[in-house]
Amino acid sequence: MPARTWLPPGPFDLHRTLGVLQRGPGDPAFAVRGGELWRACRTPQGPGTLRLAARPSAGGIEAEAWGPGADWLLDRLPELLGAGDDPAEFTARHRIVHEARRRHPGVRLARTGLVLESLIPSILEQKVTSDEAYRAWRLLLCRHGEAAPGPWDRMRVMPDPRGWALIPSWEWHRAGVDGKRSATILRAVRAARRMEEAARMDLADATRRLTALPGIGPWTAAETLQRTLGAPDAITVGDLHLPKIIGYALTGRRGTTDEQMLELLAPYEGQRHRAARLILLSGRVPPRRAPRFPVGDIARL
Fold first, then answer.
1. Dihedrals φ, ψ of 42, to 5°?
2. How far apart are CA 203 and CA 278, in angstroms?
3. What are the beta bridge partners of residue 30?
4. Is 102 in contact with 282 (CB distance < 8 Å)?
């Protein structure tokens, strides 16, 4: 049960920095408990559980870890918490972005250094509602993952590549995952070593590595590399909601397309993902005009 303390170089918001790693409420691999943040993952050294707590009196982040992956997690703690991220390189070009940055000075871009951990749930989120994808992630981890090391026995570590490959077809169906997405996940875990190499590449090379696999497009690659690399320019293209939110926040107009969103974000070239995150934190979203998209359940078919 090794422990470390990390002293951030400036304002730091633990929960908003790492909250992007949580895959919906009830994520078996991520939890907030009594103000502490818990994360269970599969490292190159094996399963590990990380507990993080902000200690304002000590001016730092206290960390404890359990399992074979404990040392790996603690050695990379500064990187995970955005020590390699430099928000000072960012210049706000819109009032709403400037205000969001002023209100949230402690948000950094986390870098996990793990590809499959972010790639698999991103594949699950392809072409379905978030609720459907979160449900699939919960069911698959609870049924096929393993108990996370450490004191909290309700957390789960996702399967290793062989474990994913051994999930039978009816279990994917029971989790509501169609054949196209499950086939993409199986291709990814069979190429696990090649996928994980992307964690040591720059954004352009990592994107090419991921999108070379059938079933992984720019949307999935960006959603993965935002977390794996903490890449400030990994803007998501092909999302149902993001262009509309960006367009409404910056112009007040509805119906913004991907192409129009990229034009609006052109002044932030090199920092477009950071700009999008700040816009999302502003809370300015277009009013809803239609009911939510109905949640499907192929498990009942």
1. -105, 110
2. 20
3. 39
4. no
Q: How far is CA 217 from CA 2, 163, 194, 236, in A?
A: 39, 24, 16, 11
**Angle formed at CA 46 by CA 42 and CA 49, multiple of 5 degrees:** 60
Strand partners, 43: 46
Query: Are the CB atoms for 155 and 141 separated by under 8 Å?
Result: no
Q: Percent helix, strand, coil in the chain (nearest 5)?
A: 45, 10, 40
pTM: 0.93
DSSP 259: H
- Residue of 115, 110, 101, 90 lying closest to 14 (CA atoms): 110
Residue 179: pLDDT band (50, 70, 90) is very high
Q: What is the pLDDT of residues 264-295, one digit of tens each?
A: 999 999 999 999 999 999 999 888 665 554 55
Pair 29, 141: CB distance under 8 Å: yes
| β-strand partners of 104 | none
What sign does the dihedral 173-216-245-259 (CA atoms) show? negative
Asked if residue 48 lies in contact with residue 75, where contact means CB atoms within 8 angstroms, the answer is no
Backbone dihedral region of 6: left (phi > 0), alpha (psi from -120 to 50 degrees) or beta?
beta
> What's the CA gap between 170 and 172, in Å, rounded?
5
